[in-house]
């Protein structure tokens, strides 16, 4: 017919099989976040430690004077540790509003009135956060391993440390899954993303602070189960076949204190495989402002 | 926009997205005009808190401190006018009485119905006896009985000497309150003044007159002889005429009715001498 | 007619906001959070009572006062006070905007900055009412352990109260300013409290003066526990101003940031979400 009907017509094309609706949510969420310049800046910043490490690896491979900078399995463990700060901020930035914003906008009713199961909805939201967290943890760590291979020009390091690839993958996935599920659970409790962000920060920092106090009093890491970051740290040490840390890590590890502490740990680990037994734990009590001679 | 709003009730009309709420926010000092100046009651409104003694604003949004009772909430807001606790409570009581919420004054706002929430919003706007009341969609969400009550209240306040600006996109609500309108669309004024005067001024748009009579064909013959009749059609026992000169047409029609030579004329109405027709015409043009 | 004076308007906003803040779900959550140190103190007290040896550090029995001081520093000053400041301070006006109740306050004959000041006072009162009971309970539970004396330690408790109130005021004012000017104040607040401050405090030079913690730590009278590498490093770089200088600087921070916040609120347009 010459004049076509411009009214509503039923869709006659192919439909995706059931169970893939979560991908629509994930895709839209990822696209939405990538449209924010501030967030792109955060992602870019999160790769800065990667570049620093890449330079370190290059120098170690090409400059004899810099041989002491040669990477070890601990280098990759430390790198993932350093990325914790970005994990925290990406989790708060992306994750706080994942379900909270939908609750606020009454969008849940609309979502669940579509042919979308609750599991697909949750999984789709989880996928958004996990994607960005993996971009900040697993991806740079694996690329760093590849960079090491490329700069070294041989497979010696990889052959000697073949466990590194699965270790990085397993630890990154455990970390990302734990963090993402925790944040998603908190996000579902409120319709204010600000409140959720604070709630998450409280869980992380407060548990760490409580553990810090208990450690300072008891000098024992047996209370590390209280602290979310300390728990993850213990898991990481086991996966990377390292002796467990003897003092609490700080959750926000961008500080110089953390770097100083890690370098002191490196010294300890570098000299012996079982430093902790021989280390004496000493506690000095000093007033603020007084130098220690 | 360049507009001067007279005393009495002025209806601010426009379709969704016309700029009614934005206009309300500008005249209540919540938004700054990007260009030009705005004065309310003769003074600039932006950052001029003393003007709010004379202005009462009932916003569109349905937001409250839900845990407070109606009385507590209105009293707390009136206290911000610098009144003592006792005076503020008394004024709050009076305002709640004016909006017929005395019985529910000590109930939490969270338990109020939609109509009650709208009324308590109006109570806080008029509790301090302002000279100018600005009501943004005051009838939104109300049932028909509550609407009628509110319209009656608004008219009573106007009769008591207050100037009131009421915004709505529902024409018959405004029509039932006032014939003085400010019609806006896409951030511009389309018309302001008395709705009938506006109608008369729309020369290009012919007037439609509906005449139900005994001898519609004879009437039609008589009408067609005149050059001011632009078109004509028949409906059940009636003839609908479009004329470019309504005054002359009505004068002739009156004579015809009085003489009776073309039979009895039962009904004469003008379907487009109302706000809806004016609105439709101006908004679409 | 002249609007009521700024102080009177602020006090009336304080009256209106205190009840809202104190009985909100947020405050209930924070109250639960502040129960954490109390539970910890209770656990320490029980352990200390059950094991006569008490807590021993380097073979020396730890006094309750040092444990209390450590808890004040690690839990309250380095975590709870900044978190309360971020949580409430960034949301003073933002909460009203999100709830769309700001219209009622801004169409009253009071200066806009009175709304901010009143809400700040309400925040201070609310947080003090939450924090101080928690500190007191911790004090009474922990100080007697290891042979400590409540009477002897009581003056330091009063000092700690003052220090915590000053900390709450300073952080609240700083984050109130952040909240008026920045799009994502929560992230900025967390970066400042848990990224910038801990980092900069370790570095030599003048950067540390751009923190609140630098001035607050001068008010801490407790003996700080010191661990090997990190604390030695911290102690080497730590310069602490005098108490008087710190108080003056903190007062200036509060006054300055509140004034700037007031200006921002007066000049900004708040567009409500449709």
What does this structure look like?
The complex is a heterotrimer of chains A (293), B (285) and C (274). Chain A has 293 residues and is an all-alpha fold. Chain A has helices at residues 21-34, 37-46, 48-62, 73-82, 84-95, 100-104, 107-112, 118-136, 138-152, 156-160, 164-187, 193-218, 228-239, 256-271, 275-278; one strand spanning 284-286. Chain A has one domain. Chain A has 15 helices and 1 strand. By secondary structure, chain B is α/β, with parallel strands linked by helices. Chain B folds into 2 domains: 9-198, P-loop containing nucleotide triphosphate hydrolases (Rossmann fold, 3-Layer(aba) Sandwich), CATH 3.40.50; 202-284, 2-Layer Sandwich (Alpha-Beta Plaits). In chain B, helix 2 crosses helix 3 (85-98) and helix 3 (85-98) packs across helix 4. Chain C has one domain (6-267). Chain C has helices spanning 6-22, 25-50, 64-89, 94-99, 102-106, 112-142, 150-181, 185-202, 213-216, 229-237, 243-267; strands spanning 56-57, 60-61, 224-226. The radius of gyration of chain C is 20 Å and the shape is globular. In chain C, 73% of the residues lie in helices and 3% in strands. The longest helix of chain C has 32 residues, at 150-181. The two termini of chain C are 34 Å apart. The B-C interface holds B 28-32, 47, 49-53, 55, 57, 59, 61, 63-65, 67-68, 76-77, 79-82, 124 and C 1-4, 8-9, 12-13, 15-16, 19-20, 23, 99-101, 103-112, 266, 269-272.
CATH domain topology of the largest domain in chain B: Rossmann fold
**What is the top-level CATH class of the largest domain in chain B?**
Alpha Beta
Q: For the terminal residues of chain C, how far apart are their CA atoms?
A: 34 Å
Q: Taking strands numbered 1, 2, ... along the chain, how are they ordered across the largest sheet of chain C?
A: 1-2
Features:
heterotrimer; B: 285 residues; alpha/beta; Rossmann fold; Alpha-Beta Plaits; 2 domains; six-stranded mixed beta sheet; four-stranded antiparallel beta sheet; 12 strands; 22% strand; C: 274 residues; mainly alpha; 3 strands; 3% strand; globular
Would you spell out the secondary-structure blueprint of this structure?
The complex is a heterotrimer of chains A (293), B (285) and C (274).
Chain A: H1 21-34, H2 37-46, H3 48-62, H4 73-82, H5 84-95, H6 100-104, H7 107-112, H8 118-136, H9 138-152, H10 156-160, H11 164-187, H12 193-218, H13 228-239, H14 256-271, H15 275-278, E1 284-286
Helix pairs in contact in A: 1-8, 2-5, 3-9, 5-8, 5-11, 5-12, 8-11, 9-11, 11-12, 11-13
Chain B: E1 9-13, H1 20-27, E2 39-40, E3 43-44, E4 55-58, H2 70-79, H3 85-98, H4 114-126, E5 132-136, H5 144-159, E6 163-168, H6 171-177, E7 180-185, E8 188-194, H7 195-201, E9 207-213, H8 216-224, E10 229-235, E11 238-243, H9 246-259, E12 265-269, H10 275-284
Parallel strand pairs in B: 1-6, 1-7, 4-5, 5-6
Antiparallel strand pairs in B: 2-3, 7-8, 9-11, 9-12, 10-11
Helix pairs in contact in B: 2-3, 3-4
Chain C: H1 6-22, H2 25-50, E1 56-57, E2 60-61, H3 64-89, H4 94-99, H5 102-106, H6 112-142, H7 150-181, H8 185-202, H9 213-216, E3 224-226, H10 229-237, H11 243-267
Antiparallel strand pairs in C: 1-2
């Amino acid at each position: 017919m010459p004049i076509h009907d411009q009214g509503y017509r039923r869709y006659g094309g192919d439909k995706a099989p059931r169970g893939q609706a979560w991908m629509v949510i994930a895709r839209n969420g990822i696209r939405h976040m990538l449209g924010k310049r501030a967030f792109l800046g955060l992602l870019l910043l999160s790769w800065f430690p990667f570049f620093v490490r890449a330079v370190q690896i290059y120098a170690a491979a090409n400059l004899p004077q810099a041989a002491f900078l040669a990477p070890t399995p601990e280098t990759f463990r430390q790198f993932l540790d350093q990325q914790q700060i970005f994990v925290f901020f990406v989790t708060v930035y992306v994750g706080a509003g994942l379900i909270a914003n939908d609750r606020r906008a009454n969008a849940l009713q609309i979502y669940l009135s579509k042919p979308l199961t609750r599991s697909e909805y949750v999984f789709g939201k989880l996928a958004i956060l996990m994607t960005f967290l993996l971009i900040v943890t697993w991806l740079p760590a694996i690329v760093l391993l590849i960079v090491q291979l490329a700069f070294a020009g041989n497979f010696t390091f990889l052959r000697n440390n073949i466990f590194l690839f699965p270790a990085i993958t397993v630890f990154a996935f455990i970390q990302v899954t734990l963090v993402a599920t925790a944040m998603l659970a908190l996000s579902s409790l409120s319709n204010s993303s600000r409140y959720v962000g604070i709630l998450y920060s409280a869980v992380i920092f407060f548990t760490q602070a409580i553990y810090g106090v208990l450690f300072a009093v008891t000098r024992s890491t047996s209370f590390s189960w209280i602290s979310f970051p300390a728990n993850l740290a213990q898991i990481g040490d086991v996966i990377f076949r390292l002796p467990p840390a003897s003092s609490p890590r700080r959750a926000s590890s961008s500080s110089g204190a953390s770097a100083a502490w890690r370098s002191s740990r490196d010294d300890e680990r570098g000299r012996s495989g079982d430093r902790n037994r021989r280390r004496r734990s000493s506690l000095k009590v000093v007033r603020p402002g007084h130098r220690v001679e | 926009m360049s507009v001067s709003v007279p005393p009495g009730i002025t209806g601010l009309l426009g379709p969704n997205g016309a700029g009614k709420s934005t206009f309300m926010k500008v005249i209540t000092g919540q938004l700054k005009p990007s260009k030009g100046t705005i004065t309310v009651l003769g003074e600039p409104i932006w950052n001029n808190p003393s003007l709010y003694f004379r202005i009462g604003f009932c916003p569109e949004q349905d937001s409250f401190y839900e845990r407070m009772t109606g009385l507590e909430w209105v009293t707390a807001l009136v206290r911000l006018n610098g009144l003592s606790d006792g005076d503020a409570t008394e004024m709050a009581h009076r305002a709640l009485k004016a909006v017929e919420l005395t019985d529910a004054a000590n109930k939490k706002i969270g338990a109020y119905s939609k109509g009650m929430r709208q009324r308590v919003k109006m109570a806080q706007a008029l509790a301090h006896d302002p000279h100018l009341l600005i009501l943004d969609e005051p009838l939104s969400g109300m049932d028909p009985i509550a609407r009628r009550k509110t319209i009656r209240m608004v008219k009573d306040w106007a009769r008591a000497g207050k100037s009131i600006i009421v915004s709505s996109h529902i024409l018959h609500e405004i029509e039932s309150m006032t014939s003085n309108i400010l019609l806006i669309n896409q951030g511009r004024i389309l018309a302001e003044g008395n709705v009938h005067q506006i109608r008369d001024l729309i020369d290009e748009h012919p007037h439609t007159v509906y005449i139900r009579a005994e001898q519609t064909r004879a009437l039609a013959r008589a009408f067609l002889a005149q050059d001011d009749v632009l078109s004509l059609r028949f409906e059940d026992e009636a003839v609908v005429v479009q004329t470019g000169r309504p005054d002359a047409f009505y004068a002739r029609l009156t004579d015809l009715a009085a003489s009776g030579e073309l039979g009895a004329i039962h009904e004469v109405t003008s379907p487009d001498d109302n706000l809806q027709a004016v609105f439709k015409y101006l908004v679409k043009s | 007619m002249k609007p009521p004076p700024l102080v009177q308007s602020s006090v009336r906003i304080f009256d209106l906001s205190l009840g809202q803040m104190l009985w909100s779900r947020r405050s209930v959550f924070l109250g639960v959070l502040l129960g954490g140190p109390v539970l910890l103190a209770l656990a320490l007290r029980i352990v200390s009572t059950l094991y006569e040896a008490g807590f021993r550090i380097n073979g020396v029995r730890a006094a309750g006062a040092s444990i209390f001081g450590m808890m004040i520093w690690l839990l309250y000053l380095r975590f709870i006070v900044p978190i309360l400041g971020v949580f409430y301070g960034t949301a003073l006006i933002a909460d009203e905007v999100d709830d769309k109740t700001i219209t009622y306050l801004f169409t009253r004959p009071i200066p806009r900055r009175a709304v901010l000041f009143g809400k700040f006072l309400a925040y201070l009162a609310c947080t003090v009412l939450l924090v101080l009971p928690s500190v007191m309970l911790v004090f009474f539970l922990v100080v007697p352990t290891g042979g400590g004396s409540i009477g002897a330690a009581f003056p330091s408790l009063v000092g700690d109260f003052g220090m915590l109130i000053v900390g709450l005021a300073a952080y609240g004012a700083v984050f109130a300013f952040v909240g008026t000017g920045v799009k994502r104040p929560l992230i900025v607040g967390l970066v400042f409290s848990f990224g910038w401050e801990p980092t900069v405090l370790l570095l030599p030079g003048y950067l540390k003066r751009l923190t609140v913690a630098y001035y607050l730590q001068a008010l801490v009278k407790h003996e700080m526990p010191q661990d090997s590498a990190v604390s030695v490093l911290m102690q080497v770089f730590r310069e602490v101003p005098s108490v008087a200088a710190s108080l003056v600087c903190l007062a200036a921070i509060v006054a300055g940031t509140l004034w700037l916040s007031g200006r921002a609120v007066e000049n900004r347009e708040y567009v409500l979400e449709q």
